[in-house]
């Protein structure tokens, strides 16, 4: 089924490097990839590096939207995350980054929609971050919600991948409690991921903190159910990353029972 969609599908990700960390299995097959955020308040070398990378990106189907980041990372309470229309509820705290801007975070939801909308004519499906933001990033959750709004408006299928971390499991548990999802497995493209990692390092804008990161050999692409509801007990493979415990990722094919995920 995925093979029938990919040629005219559009992928939307938050930051440079998200496309190769979470979507290498489809990166070269989709029609277009949009990277939302470029400028990083308070970190001029990352801003300059990302802008330089945008000018010389080695894949032809990549477009940078040049939206400014709101520095939302760690703005949510991941132990009790509060979902909103625009992503997650975020607040200033001793954990938030320099340049954190809750108002900009809210506004970026509509900025993403406005920037992507003109480019979706003839799209077969939309792909994005998952509802829990992979390892737990507030921008990733926001991109999911913006893309889901677009998919709903345009009547398109919305797909995401199966990465999760210890930080994001509570939000994942809530999302998966509503019922089973259809998913398809694809091999990742590890040589392409390593090529793009080297490209970002060359431009001094590589941000993934694990120096010895082990890329997964496969990833699941999951179709967002919309209003679908199904019985509990379906299984879903997860690519699990230990982030908050400081451990490096281990490949696991975790089969989760939705009833257990819902805490029932």
Q: How is the main sheet built?
A: 7 strands, mixed
Written as H for each helix and E for each strand, in order along the chain, the element string is HEHEHEEEHEHEEHEHEEH
Uncertain stretches of 5 or more adjacent residues: 246-264
Per CATH, which architecture?
A: 3-Layer(aba) Sandwich
The general outline is globular
Mean pLDDT score, rounded? 89
Number of continuous helical runs: 8
Name the structural class. Answer: alpha/beta
Read across the widest sheet, the strand sequence of neighbours is 3-2-1-6-7-10-9
| Proportion of residues in extended strands | 15-25%
Helicity range of the residues?
A: 25-40%
Here the CATH topology equals Rossmann fold
**Whole-angstrom Rg:** 17 Å
How many strand segments? Answer: 11
| N/C terminus separation | 33 Å
The CATH class turns out to be Alpha Beta
Q: Number of folding domains?
A: 1
Provide structural commentary.
With 264 residues, this protein is of the alpha/beta class. The chain has one domain: Rossmann fold (3-Layer(aba) Sandwich). The chain is 30% helix and 17% strand. The chain contains 8 helices and 11 strands. The protein has helices at 2-5, 18-22, 44-55, 102-116, 138-154, 169-176, 190-202, 258-261, and strands at 10-13, 32-37, 62-67, 83-84, 87-88, 125-128, 157-161, 163-165, 183-187, 218-223, 239-241. The strands form 3 sheets. The chain has a 7-stranded mixed beta sheet. Strands 4-5 form a two-stranded antiparallel sheet. Strands 8-11 form a two-stranded parallel sheet. The chain is globular.
């Amino acid at each position: 089924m995925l093979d029938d969609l990919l040629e005219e599908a559009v992928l939307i990700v938050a930051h440079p490097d998200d496309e190769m960390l979470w979507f290498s299995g489809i990166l070269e097959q989709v029609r277009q990839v949009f990277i939302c955020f470029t400028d990083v308040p308070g970190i001029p070398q990352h801003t300059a590096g990302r802008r330089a990378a945008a000018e010389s990106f080695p894949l032809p189907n990549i477009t940078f939207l040049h939206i400014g980041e709101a520095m939302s990372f760690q703005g949510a309470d991941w132990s009790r995350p509060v979902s909103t229309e625009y992503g997650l509820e975020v607040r200033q705290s001793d954990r938030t980054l320099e340049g954190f801007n809750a108002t900009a975070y809210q506004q970026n939801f509509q900025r993403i929609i406005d920037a992507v909308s003109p480019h979706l004519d003839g799209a077969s499906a939309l792909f994005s971050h998952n509802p829990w933001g992979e390892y737990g990033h507030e921008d990733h959750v926001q991109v999911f919600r913006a893309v889901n709004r677009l998919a709903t408006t345009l009547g398109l299928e919305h797909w995401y991948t199966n990465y999760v971390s210890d930080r994001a499991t509570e939000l994942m548990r809530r999302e998966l409690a509503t019922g089973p999802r259809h998913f398809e497995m694809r091999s990742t493209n590890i040589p392409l991921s390593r090529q793009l990692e080297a490209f970002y390092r060359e431009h001094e804008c590589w941000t993934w903190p694990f120096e010895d990161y082990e890329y997964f050999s496969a990833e699941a692409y999951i179709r967002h159910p919309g209003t679908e509801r199904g019985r509990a007990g379906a299984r879903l493979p997860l690519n699990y990353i230990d982030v908050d415990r400081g451990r490096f990722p281990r490949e696991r094919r975790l089969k989760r029972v939705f009833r257990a995920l819902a805490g029932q």
